[in-house]
Amino acid sequence: GGVAGSSATPGYMKMKRLLLLLAIPILFLSLFAGAEATFISASGGWSETIDEFDLVSGAGSDLTPVYESAVNATILSISGCVDNTDTWRVDVKRVDSVWHGDFTLYVRRTSEGIGGGTISGGDLYIEVTTVDGEFFYGAGDRSDINVQYKLSGMSVRIPPGIYSSTIVYTVVDI
Prior knowledge:
This protein has one helix at 8-16; strands spanning 20-24, 26-31, 39-44, 46-50, 66-68, 74-79, 87-98, 104-109, 118-120, 126-128, 133-139, 142-152, 161-173. The chain is mainly β.
């Protein structure tokens, strides 16, 4: 049940001040060996405002712990391949601006994109850490590869504020 009278107001006011904004801008890098270069480009990102409307069951309850972006929050393209057998790997990491240790960020590929060659892996969520991790593999030029994010660890115990991390995608010619 609820609390009658004015004692409910302070709890509501406290929750009104709870505002967490998650911003995920993106950056892309290309690493290559030799004269031929494979390039990656990325567009999009994810921003999530978490406030009192995300409480599981109103004032006094915890926040929804997990949030997911749209399935096409970021769109990647790989270009500059010699032909459809020119192989590459995409790595991913995050560079934190303001981040909370309870957060865990995940990424997954939600489409194969279009173009010649092949693409594999990355269709299940993997944790994005501050160290490059292998995301997916492919060969040949591919465009319109959709990427989705998931954030876990959200709680009312996390101080209100604006939290952000830049996601860095790197294509490695292999």
